[in-house]
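Holo prediction — adenosine-5'-diphosphate.
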Amino acid sequence: MLEIRDLHVDIAGSRILRGISLVVRPGELVCLLGRNGAGKTTTLNAVMGHRCPVAGGIRFGDADLAMLPPHRIALLGIGFSPEESEVFADLTVAENIAMPTWTRKQGRPAAERIERAYAVFPKLRQYTARGGAQLSGGERKMVSIARALALDPELLLLDEPFEGLSPLVIPEIAQGIGAIRADGRAVLIAESNLHHIPDHADRVHVIERGEIVFSGPPEALARDAAAMAIVAAV
Ligand SMILES: Nc1ncnc2c1ncn2[C@@H]1O[C@H](COP(=O)(O)OP(=O)(O)O)[C@@H](O)[C@H]1O
Ligand SMILES: [Mg+2]
């Protein structure tokens, strides 16, 4: 479904990604784990068309994503919840979540897509009329993920879904990710904290200085001393 092959990306003249390769198959949950500055966000940004590869390829089904602008990539069915949530402050929660049903007409009917998004984070039903600026960090994350879901994506990219959240909110987000998965969607999570990796993850890729230094299931990561030394340092 998503295939990143030998991806190289430069930012401001520096090589930031050095040959990233990974695949996400339908329904899989894959984690890109690495400390701050390792290149996780750059990888997701490259998938979404916000960063242009200098070498390598990114395919989603039959489409070559490296050739497409971000809005076309979203229309193919890739939802994105960015690191800073980027909830529209001037819109209500309901408007934020409904937005992808205005921009992408493919997929299930709008009402069904919106209902599924709220079903993942039921707490948001209380906040539909609230402005995007009047939300806590955790609520913003939920709105951002729910909005990405309302696109009716086959693949969802979540950049640091747990970052900076209170310990009370973390289980709610983790449960939501489980529900998204149970819905049959593929998920790629960028994460800096080993303890936030869902134990039902199919694969973990550890990224360090723009390179993948470990790939395997979570149990294998726990047995890999070199990879654990990198990710346990966070
Ligand atoms: N806009 C930018 N200008 C210069 N360097 C950047 C920019 N964005 C990211 N970088 C650099 O790219 C590297 C990877 O960043 P990023 O992908 O955001 O890492 P992560 O998401 O793993 O924390 C870092 O060293 C960071 O300093
Ligand atoms: Mg990041």
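READOUT: The first helix runs from residue 40 to 47.
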